[in-house]
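Figure 3 (text version): C-alpha cells given as input.
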C-alpha cells in the first residue's frame, strides 16, 4: 500500500490502518541530533530500519504522559478529503517535515490507526478553502501594521468549533495521515507564515475511531521563526504583530522540537490524547 493516498476521504481512514511512513529513518536521524539529512537519502529509508532506540531518541521526554493542551479548531477547519503526506502542492516556503507521535495520556502507549490532520496558512498568511476570508476579504493579506485605532484585518474571523464551508477549491497545506503501530505519522509541508493577532502555528486534530479526540496547535521557537521570516517568500511581508509570548493560545508544551536539515527543517512532538475522555 502506498504512503500517499491522494484524494481519499478521512472517513475512509480505517482502510489505511498501518500505513508506514516513508523517510521516517531520516526524521529519526535529524530529531535525535545525529548527522543532517537530505532528500536524496532520507526519502529511501524504510520504516523497518528504525530501531526502538532510534525512536526513543526521536521522541525524548515522551513518557511524561501529560495530556496535550486542547484548543478550539478555529474558523478554517474542514475535511479536506486528502489522505496524504506531502501537503505542499505548489506553495513556496522553507521545507518542514513533521514527525508526530500519538500516545495515550494514561498508559503512555502509542495509539495506532488514529487519523492525524494538519492545516495551516501559507507564507502569505492565507488558508486554502478560505483565501478571501483569511486575506481580510480581498484575497491578499494586508502588509505592515494596521493604522492606529483600526481593528486588525487579515486574521481569522470569529470562530470556534464549527466546520468551515470552503469558499474556494484550494486544498494546499491540508492533509491527513494514519498512525502506524508506533503511533507515528509524517508530513512534508512548509514553515507557516503569519497573520495578525496570532503567532506562527500549525493546527492539528487527532481522530480515534469516529471521534475528534484531540485538537491542538504546534508552534516554533521564536529564534527560528525570525530566521525563516527573513528569507523569501516570507520577507515580502512585514509588520508581524504577535509572537509566542503575546499569543492568547501559546503554551510552551506546544513547541516543536526542531532541527535544521540540509533541505529545510525537521520538527517532532508527542501528542498525548485521551480517547476515553476522562481527563487523564
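Below: residues designed for each position.
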Amino acid at each position: 500500500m502506498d504512503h500517499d493516498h491522494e484524494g481519499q476521504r478521512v472517513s475512509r481512514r480505517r482502510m489505511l490502518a498501518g500505513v508506514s511512513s516513508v523517510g521516517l529513518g531520516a526524521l529519526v536521524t535529524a530529531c535525535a541530533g545525529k548527522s543532517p539529512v537530505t532528500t536524496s537519502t532520507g526519502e529511501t529509508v524504510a520504516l523497518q530500519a528504525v530501531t526502538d532506540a532510534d525512536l526513543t531518541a526521536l521522541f525524548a521526554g515522551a513518557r511524561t504522559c501529560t495530556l496535550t493542551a486542547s484548543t478550539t479548531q478555529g474558523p478554517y477547519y474542514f475535511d479536506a478529503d486528502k489522505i496524504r503526506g506531502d501537503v505542499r502542492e505548489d506553495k513556496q516556503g522553507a521545507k518542514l517535515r513533521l514527525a508526530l507521535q500519538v500516545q495515550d495520556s494514561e498508559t503512555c502507549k502509542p495509539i495506532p490507526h488514529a487519523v492525524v490532520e494538519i492545516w495551516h496558512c501559507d507564507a502569505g498568511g492565507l488558508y486554502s478553502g478560505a483565501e478571501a476570508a483569511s486575506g481580510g476579504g480581498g484575497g491578499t493579506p494586508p502588509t505592515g501594521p494596521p493604522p492606529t485605532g483600526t481593528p486588525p484585518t487579515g486574521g481569522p474571523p470569529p470562530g470556534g468549533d464549527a466546520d468551515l464551508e470552503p469558499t474556494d477549491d484550494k486544498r494546499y497545506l491540508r492533509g491527513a495521515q494514519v498512525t502506524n503501530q508506533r503511533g507515528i505519522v509524517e508530513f512534508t509541508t512548509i514553515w507557516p507564515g503569519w497573520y495578525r493577532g496570532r503567532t506562527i502555528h500549525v493546527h492539528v486534530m487527532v481522530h480515534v475511531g469516529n471521534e475528534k479526540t484531540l485538537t491542538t496547535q504546534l508552534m516554533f521557537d521564536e529564534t527560528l521563526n525570525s530566521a525563516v521570516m527573513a528569507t523569501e517568500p516570507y520577507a515580502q511581508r512585514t509588520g508581524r504583530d504577535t509572537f509566542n509570548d503575546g499569543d492568547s493560545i501559546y503554551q510552551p508544551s506546544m513547541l516543536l522540537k526542531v532541527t535544521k536539515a540540509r533541505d529545510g527543517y525537521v520538527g517532532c512532538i508527542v501528542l498525548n490524547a485521551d480517547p476515553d475522555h476522562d481527563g487523564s
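The CA atoms of residues 87 and 267 lie 15 Å apart.
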